[in-house]
Design goal:
The chain has about 650 residues and is of the alpha/beta class. The protein has a domain of about 300 residues: Rossmann fold (3-Layer(aba) Sandwich), CATH 3.40.50. The protein has 15 helices and twelve strands. The strands form three sheets. Strands 2-1-4-5-6-7 form a six-stranded antiparallel sheet. It has a four-stranded parallel sheet with strand order 3-12-11-8, sandwiched between helices. Strands 9-10 form a two-stranded antiparallel sheet. It is elongated and about 125 Å long. The two termini are about 45 Å apart.
Length: about 650
Amino acid sequence: MHNNLFLHRLFILTEQGKIAYDETFHKGVNIIRGDNSSGKSTITHFIFFVLGGSFNDFVPEGRRCSVVYAEVEMNNAIFTIKREIEKDEKENISTQSPIYFFWGKLNESLNPPVDKVWQKFGYNTTNNIKSFSNVIFDNLELPIVKGDSNITIHQILRLLYVDQDSPTSSLFYYEHFDSQLTRETVSDLLLGVYNEELYENKKRLITAEKELENIKSEIKTTSQFFTDPLSLSPRHLKVSIENKEFQILEIQNEIAAIRTKEKEVNYGTNSKLSFQALNEQAITQRYIVVELENQKSYLNNEIEDSIFFIDTLNKKIKALKNSIQTREFLGNLPLEYCPECLTKIKSNDYDSKCKLCKEPIDESFGVIQARRMELEIGFQINESQKLLEINKRSLLEMEAKYSAELAKLHDFQNQVNSALQDVKSFSEESIDSLNNSLGFIKGEILQYRTMLENAELYERLQNKKNELDKEVNYLKGYKFNAEKKQANLKEQINKRVREEGVYLLNNDLDRQDEFKNASDFYIDYSNNIAFLSNKYSKYSASSNFYLKVSARFAIFLASLSIEGMRYPRFIFADNMEDKGIEQKRAQNLQKLLIDRVSQFDSRQYQMIYTTSYITEELNESEYVVGEYYTKENPSLKNIVK
């Protein structure tokens, strides 16, 4: 099951560099227990903070810490992250401090080898720089949402962290500046109904429709200047130019015949200088055309190289993902009998040791390397795509310029050819008349060439319009089908969430009749509430708390049985007995949750919660993490007051 997040170890240092907290967590259920005011909530605050949450409201003991490390596992890749507690001159803690990534385990990160370094990623994303949210999303295989709703890892954590400071009416971790669009996008993302291709195609549909309208407007404006439809036909205009050029050739031949009859060819000084000037202009223009041809050829080659390079990089990313999946598949093949003696091999700790040689296995090394390579290739694809778009635009401009310069070259060449023949005296009236006609026809050719340039642009606009018409029709059809499929998938997932929520409510102690008799359960993510049949029903503070916790754990429990959900099978809750809930009721809720998750493979999820009302049975169980904290023995050690 993909989209897994696990916290292996949490390590916190004081401002003096001493260890304030160092505990190892395990997959499955983790219970942090202790008396009130013993620092349990502070630990969940640090978990929220190090994973990328925007938090700065630490208790005084937490504010005296300098840095927090976390060894985490995301989709079988184990690595370490750290986040420093940055303060300004007024001792205010920054909520947007960067996160450092080390592609290895925590012990190794404290004294890294020469070939490994920490990588720093900031809070904000730019066109050229990834944020730490982008890196975490890549490792959790969560699509990065772009556009109006900028979803960060903080927004994701708001649905994974059950805190005690948020109002019971708030399903998400509460924050002042919140929007329905953000909450709805986060829920779609985690439920697995967010379709990245649909999102991109919807954005492209908006852009394509705007482009289509602009092109239609440009076509309409262009056509208004030419009442004759033939004026917008490149084929017709080229034929007209060829006819005019033929007329020029006939006139030139006639002039040459008249001169031949009168006297021998006599190159005059002025005529020769005129020919030389025209010839120099033609040579210069030819250089311009050749240079443009070379630039066109260069751009075409660059575009082909970029397309091939991007395709190769995408294939590399696909190969990396296939490699990770192959490694995971082959790593799970059971070896039940010894290949030497055919004796059945006794079971051992399959998570960390080889069945045959009993040596420890580092299953994450290859995956980590692949993740790092995938990140670097992603940067290359982004840069190559930008270069490709620039070259395509340059080629379009170059082709238009080339057509115009080539026409100029033809005109210069015709003038040179005329000058070669026209080096005799022009005193005769008949020759003057022919020359006047020649100039008039050349003027017509210039007009036709201008019209041809507009006609070719008009033709390109028509072709682009046809392409956009096809694209818009395709995108509209895709959008309709994808949204229909998305709605069906969302209903299936919500049905499972409702079943889990009803189960937790029905098995509550007999404190709220509506809970015991509940048959429906709804979550309105955009409006940030959970309710039964009536969203305006009022309950006691403890029952409101129970309803909210049931909703959050219902989503978590649903993700354990629906592989398509992107919820990372990770939840952490602060204080399971908040808002005055009685001890017996809180303990019953803990038992319900542990009994329910015990039906699933504990290697696929992690649940962390704090409590002051732990039963004796759970206090002696394998679920507990760390000591039982008291005011005299708090969670954070070595704090200088």
